[in-house]
Amino acid sequence: MPSIHVEVHCPVFDSFRVQQVGGMFDVPLSQRASQQFDVDVPDWVFAKNEDDESAWRLGLIVGPSGSGKSTIARTMFGPCVYRPHPWPADRAVIDGFSQRSIKEITRLLTAVGFSSPPSWIKPYQVLSNGEQFRCDLARALFETDGDGRPHPVVVFDEFTSVVDRNVARVVSAAVARGIRAGWIRRRLVAVTCHYDVAEWLEPDWVIDMATAEFTRRRLRRPPIRLELFRCGRGAWRLFARHHYLSGSLAEFSRCFLAIWENRPVAFCSSVSLIGRKNRWRIGRLVTLPDYQGIGIGAAVLEAVAELHRREGHRLNLTASHPAVLAHCRRSPAWRLVNVKTTGSHGVRRFIHNYRGSEGRAVASFEYVGNREIRD
Known about the structure:
CATH architecture of the largest domain: 3-Layer(aba) Sandwich
Structural class: alpha/beta
CATH topology of the largest domain: Rossmann fold
Strand order of the largest sheet: 8-9-10-11-12-14-13
CATH class of the largest domain: Alpha Beta
Largest sheet: 7 strands, mixed
Number of helices: 10
Helix content: 25-40%
Radius of gyration: 25 Å
Mean pLDDT: 86
CATH superfamily of the largest domain: P-loop containing nucleotide triphosphate hydrolases
Number of domains: 2
Number of strands: 14
């Protein structure tokens, strides 16, 4: 196992005040100050062939401030370390991704847990810290070298350092989910002083600079236990501005609120179809931005749909949000009823790629039940 040895030198400039501090606190003065960092890292970490049996997708370099995390990351991966650059102050965040297509941009933003179209069209500086961090992470995962080729590895320093620790856990789980599922076709190395992200990121290997130890492991993410309650219409006020179409709520909606660790995280409503016995539809489904990307919205949707099924109701969902469409398309609990595109006349049946040139896809699904839940 090769050893990485790094020695960092820092000049000490002599001055009267420097001499004073040296005398007052017995600080030994020398021409230069230096610090050494050593860690043993196996060769397979640097392998470029991702098809190798030892291939990895996620790495973590963690340790306290001053332990050499960033130095080791730069030594190991050099140009793959992401260097942030300013976002345009007078443009939307979706305009800050160079020549990428809107489909690529929205797909990656969704994969890192930033799936809020109302926020996509805002400038970077008005977003929350959590939303800004996800934008920075998405931009890092788009990075290319001087020839325009994507970096095989993206190294993100100060990972989750600027966000609330609860947001940090969610972002870690979201990006790990996107990479493991193949939605993000990059390998990621997170560099951070926060140990709490390790089990949520589920890295394939960890370098702990506090002990200079390398370990290969795959931690398991803690379960997310949601509580779902019937609630009044007043709860919608917390979620309305985050809905991608409209902030309105049907007058006779049946409302549900999802709580995680004593915090509201998602809202779902359903409404009865007038004149159609036992027929209901999902009216609103919103997950707060700080909690997007880890499947909370899908779990709430399934739970509400199952409650209706057990009451003898048939439930439909009509949506155009790409994350909702992707979930229902993959889930055996939902049956596609029809698809149309904005601006089209009438309805056409499902085909493999149902996004047409006339506009966004609007798909309708019926809940048929999840066998695991039923059994």
